[in-house]
# Entry
Amino acid sequence: MAHGLLKGKRGIISGALNEQSIAWKVAELAHAEGATIVLTNAPVAMRMGEIDKLAEAVKAPIIGADATKDEDLERLFAEGQQKLGGKVDFLLHSIGMSPNVRKGKAYEDLNYDWFKQTLDISAMSLHRMVQAAFKQDAMAEWGSIVALSYIAAQRVFPGYGDMADAKALLESIARSWGYYYGQKNKVRVNTVSQSPTPTTAGSGIKGFGGFYGFAQEMSPLGNAPAVDCANYCITLFSDLSRYVTMQNLFHDGGFSSSGVTMQVMEKFMTE
Ligand SMILES: NC(=O)c1ccc[n+]([C@@H]2O[C@H](COP(=O)([O-])OP(=O)(O)OC[C@H]3O[C@@H](n4cnc5c(N)ncnc54)[C@H](O)[C@@H]3O)[C@@H](O)[C@H]2O)c1
# Structure
């Protein structure tokens, strides 16, 4: 049920690859809540064509932009504002990729060229994106920027590899921009740390089934589905969360605060 939470707001949403993508659900819900949106993804992802379906459903133009290229991001905000008809009220960064993880390189044997790509695509891209917006003064006052993270930024999850380091950097960049953009224009910047979610990026992690199953049993509410993550992002884009900024917000069914649960303990109890 829609509440008109984003009525009259304009947003840019990155990272919708297919129906499983968290960004796909955010786009659907933002549209349902009354927002006007622009979709963006890397040109290579756009060639897969699925985003066209979403664009039609949410009546959004698509602007291709590789999030590691400053000129693409500058164009994204220039054209984006034209198409939206004004400044941007909300921005979703939903981008992640590690060549090391994708090609099965262990953390103990990283390829450093790929490591740089991991950091560039998955973390520095947030800095680049926000800097492009900042330089064009593209965000509206009290605008909201959300990037998606994972608890491997704080704790070790074997198999998540160099993405853990990228997420730690991503959360730090969000915090720093929250200061600078907050001072300039009251723009708030947060990360949402989401449960394991069966998407293309998620399932690409070796041992994803293990992360998913363990988190499921370690969370009193169970793993948070993608659509609920999207709902949470909508609240952060809305005016109901205007003073929340520079935070890493766990959206994980309680996983991050659970020491252990009975389901997990029972596996080890002998009496
Ligand atoms: N799936 C999970 O378990 C999970 C958990 C916590 C956080 N996240 C994070 O959520 C975000 C979205 O991932 P998802 O799970 O929806 O998977 P997804 O594979 O659907 O989305 C990842 C997106 O990143 C885009 N991308 C990759 N390189 C890019 C580039 N150079 N320029 C622009 N876009 C690029 C891809 O095209 C894709 O749309 C990521 O940051 C991911 O790390 C995912």
Q: What stands out?
A: The mean pLDDT is 97. The beta strands are 10-14, 36-41, 62-64, 88-93, 139-149, 188-194, 248-251. Residues 14-15, 17, 21-23, 41-42, 45, 66-68, 94-97, 121, 148-150, 194, 196-197, 199-202 surround nicotinamide-adenine-dinucleotide (CB under 6 Å). The two ends are 48 Å apart (CA to CA).
